[in-house]
Structures are given as C-alpha cells and as structure tokens.
Design brief:
This protein has about 375 residues and is an all-alpha fold. The chain has 20 helices and no strands.
C-alpha cells in the first residue's frame, strides 16, 4: 500500500485518495482500501453463488463449461494483466471485475430478461444495478452495516450503465450518466476485459459442446482462421481440440495487446494529472484500435447467430424463463410462500422488489428445486 505511488500512473486510482466508504472504517494496517474490497467480495455469499449460475450453458449440462464464477475470475485475470501494463491499480481492477456479475440472475441473460419483464411495472430489473444493490444493501456479513461497504471507486466500476431515472437516485455515483462523463480507467478497462473474456471463452465452450464447429469458425471468423493457421504451421499434427485451445489463448493475447497499445496512445494524447481529469472527459480512453473493433465485431456477431441463438440454447433458455416468470407470479401473489426472512422483508419493504431480490439470488439448481417445491404436489421435502 505504501508503494502505490511508485508503480501507479498519476491518473490511476490511488487508494490513499479514495472517496471513501458510506460507513467510515478505520484503515487496515496491512492492506490498501482496494485490497480490502477485493477480499470482501471473494468472501461474500453472492460471489460463491456465481459457481452455479449460467454463463451460456446451464450448470448441469457439463462440469467443464464456464459459469458466472469462472467467467468473473477470467475477467479479473485479463483486466489485471492489462492494468499492470498501463500502470493502473490492479487491486481496484480486480475488485471491480470480481463484483461485476454479482447481480446476475440464474439462467444467464434469459433469466434477467424474464425478471425484467416481471418487474416492468415496478422499476424493472437490471443485473448491473442489482450488483450494486448487493454490495450496498443485500449482503449480510458485518454487524455494523448492511452490504459490503465497498469504496466509492469500486462501486463506480460496478455501475457500468444506468438510465437517467436511476442515475438521479444514485446521487454522486450516478452523476456521470447525467453529465455524460467517464468513470476511472480501471472501470473502463474491466468493461472491455469482460467482452474479451466472454467472447473468447464462449467460443471455446461452444466448440467443446459441438454447437460451434471448426469448419464454420474457420470460414466465418478471420481472427480464428489467422491463429489456427499459425498453430497448425507451428505444431503440425496437433489434435484439433488442443489446437483450438491454443487459438483461444492467442486470440485473447492479440485482443489484450491491441487494447493496451491503443489505450496507451490515447492516454498519451491527453494531459492527465489525476483520475479526476479522466472522469471529466466525455469519451473513454480505454479502447480497441479500429482493427481490434472490427475483429471483435465479427466474432461477437458470429457467436450471436451460431451460439446464443442456436435452437438448443434457445430451448433451454425458454424453459428457464418460464421458471423465473412462474416463481415471480406465485411469490408476489402469495408472499407467505417465501422463506420467513424474505416474507418479513416483503411485508416491510415491498413485495415485488423483495421477490426480485430472492429470485435473482438463486443459483440455477436452486431455482429449479424451488419451482418443484412450489408447483409439484409430489415433490418430497427431503429432495
């Protein structure tokens, strides 16, 4: 902590200059404020639950597919690597990355879409805002306060996007969405590291399960074709699956190198003396080059059509959406069916939002079991 000034750029976030926490706490003698945030996130129940929340494939479909937990860890690794090269705060970057998906529902984006539709007349549901709600209010780890009481800077990074109405409710934290200014470079970096991680690793999982094929990727995604030809030339006769893993690794390396190089040039083109200079800008500085943008656009477009809209994925997501919808309808109609602690919250703090909190906090398998418990008369309580 004492050595931050020796390794961080002046425009990076320094823990000694943090805007602080909602509830004042004595500083740690051994950790920076951002290291404390990082550790609190790892030890939270919401972080552990990510192990059984869908990335693309439902948890029971295979042990080796990414989950929200492994995805968050991979985002943190990519983001910290880039942060180090840019002389940004790796501890803050890692904390934001690990927390960015805490608010995700079971069953991935299908679950969020379903829950948002259920909450349409009650303020909506957005996993990004739910992540903030978790660290600010819903986690119950400490006797002195609700939530994790994270620093302002980590909370800033968790809040990637926000509509005007919600921004007005969030005070200083939501101001940038009203003024069209930017968050810290660490927050900007995690946002793009997230895209790198899910695009490359969803490609890998799609190949693993057979919904994506080598032939189609080779023909339709130039960056895949480029690196596969390199690997094939360097390691002739290598088994196809092992070659694909090396291709994924090289694609990640290419995207990170492009991001760091282009972002460095953009940063050097500005006169930045502090993180506040970064926040005052009306355009981001962490960005791919035009070539990197083009490569990512092709990859993401292909994944959307070939993987995310694959009929087998859509079938599972459709069934998952119905689980969310039916649970929401039943619990809001009969809140006494909720567990006692949530029933008390529903009566005192609003039924619909409490039900949304309850459902959003479920893992995939817990949601399925809860559906069975509520709707299946023959379901055994011991199951």
């Amino acid at each position: 902590m004492i050595h931050e000034n020796l390794v961080l750029a002046p425009y990076a976030c320094h823990s000694s200059e943090s805007k602080g926490r909602v509830y004042a706490e004595n500083p740690s003698k051994t950790r920076t404020e951002f290291q404390r945030d990082h550790d609190r996130i790892i030890h939270s129940a919401s972080f552990r639950r990510l192990e059984y929340k869908t990335q693309v494939f439902i948890n029971h479909e295979g042990d080796l597919f990414r989950t929200r937990l492994t995805h968050s860890i991979e985002v943190a690794q990519i983001a910290r690597t880039a942060a180090s090269r840019l002389a940004l705060n790796c501890d803050l970057t890692g904390a934001i990355a690990l927390a960015h998906d805490l608010g995700h529902t079971p069953f991935g984006h299908a679950g969020q879409t379903a829950l948002n539709e259920c909450m349409r007349m009650f303020g909506g549901f957005e996993h990004n805002l739910q992540s903030l709600r978790i660290v600010d209010k819903l986690e119950e780890q400490y006797p002195a306060f609700d939530g994790l009481n994270l620093t302002w800077e980590t909370r800033e990074g968790i809040l990637k996007h926000c509509n005007i109405l919600n921004a007005m409710r969030l005070g200083d934290l939501g101001k940038r969405f009203l003024e069209k200014t930017q968050p810290s470079l660490e927050a900007q970096l995690v946002n793009i590291a997230d895209a790198i991680a899910y695009s490359t690793h969803d490609m890998d999982d799609g190949l693993r399960c057979g919904l994506l094929t080598h032939k189609e990727l080779f023909e339709n995604v130039p960056i895949y074709r480029k690196f596969f030809e390199e690997v094939e030339k360097q390691y002739p006769g290598l088994p196809i699956r092992r070659s694909q893993k090396e291709v994924v690794r090289r694609v990640i390396g290419y995207l990170v190198d492009d991001l760091v190089t282009n972002s460095s040039e953009k940063i050097q083109g500005e006169t930045l003396k502090s993180v506040q200079d970064v926040r005052n800008l009306q355009y981001p500085l962490i960005a791919f080059s035009d070539e990197g943008i083009a490569q990512m656009k092709v990859l993401k477009s292909y994944l959307m059509q070939a993987l995310y809209k694959h009929y087998q994925v859509l079938r599972v997501m459709n069934k998952s959406s119905r689980v969310i919808q039916k649970l929401f309808e039943q619990f809001t109609s009969y809140p006494e069916l909720l567990p006692p602690n949530f029933y008390e919250k529903a009566i005192n703090g609003g039924v619909q939002r409490t039900v949304a909190d309850y459902i959003a906090g479920m893992t995939d398998r817990y949601a399925v079991k809860e559906y069975e418990r509520v709707f299946n008369p023959s379901y055994e309580a011991s199951n």
